[in-house]
Amino acid sequence: MKKTILSGEKLSKTFSSGGVQQHVLKNLDITLLEGDFTVIMGSSGSGKSTLLYALSGMDRPTLGEIRFEGQSLLSLNSDQLAVFRRRHCGFVFQQIHLLDNMSVMDNLLAGGLLLSRNKGAVAEKAKELLKQAGLREELWRKFPSQLSGGEAQRAGIIRAMINDPSILFADEPTGALNSASSESVLDMMTIINQNGQSIVMVTHDVKTALRGNRILYLQDGSIRGELDLGRFRGGQQGDRHAKLSSFLDEMGW
Question: How far apart, in whole angstroms, are the C-alpha atoms of residue 253 and residue 251?
Fold first, then answer.
């Protein structure tokens, strides 16, 4: 039986604008299991990114509780939350958050040295991850602006993975990439997940969502439906696409 790694109970998030309250999350319950590739879908404004930020400790819900391996995140102060994110969370966004004035390798070293003082060990791990990601050695000393979009995003994923996060959070990781670059990034994330990495990803893209084994559909701040797609296998895309399309039609996508 899979272990619960992160859970949210009765989560609500309310924003006030011009004296009007907007309820983005509404009494939402969610459980994330270790090793799952969970995909969060829904129309714009449904609360997907808000939920991702709440679960990762980047933002606090207005009401409710979030627990990581049984520990309450809401009992932590801002400094303790920063330590939690550094130790347990990796982040990949649509915009690639690598430092422009540092080489790819130096970006990775900077991330790894936040938790480790052993620069040699961090460098060796970075090299191993770069090779696994198919990034050629001549790219390691280039600046992010000198890489293609797909190469830079793969480097960004390695940056997120350098400290062995418990959960990798991804918010529209292929949203700014062309189809070929998207495929290379998704292949990398699939392999990472198959090696045991827990992933939570927000996406609008059906092809991207096919990589997940669990689909959650948000509507108006609540989870309206859930689909078990099973583990991704390259030869099953037609069947998976039909199953996911049927589910999304049922949800009113």
Answer: 6
Query: Burial of 224 by CB count in 10 Å (0-12 exposed, 13-18 middle, 19+ buried)?
Result: middle
Report whether pLDDT(1) > 90: no
Alpha carbons 211 and 8: distance in angstroms, whole number: 23
| Backbone angles phi and psi of 174, in degrees to 5 | -110, 10
**Pairing between β-strand 222-228 and β-strand 214-219 as defined by DSSP bridges:** antiparallel
> What's this model's pTM, rounded to 2 decimal places?
0.93
Where exactly are the structural domains of the chain?
A: 35-45+84-251
- Superfamily name and number for 35-45+84-251: P-loop containing nucleotide triphosphate hydrolases (3.40.50.300)
Reported as a single tens digit per residue, the pLDDT across 16-54 is: 877 788 899 999 999 999 999 999 999 988 999 999 999
Q: How many helices (H) and strands (E) does the chain have?
A: 8, 10
d(CA 190, CA 208) in angstroms, rounded, equals 11
* Backbone CA torsion sign across 123, 126, 131, 137: negative
Phi then psi for 20, rounded to 5 degrees? -110, 130
Report residue 64 as tokens. Answer: 């409710």
- Residue 222: phi and psi, rounded to 5, are -130, 155
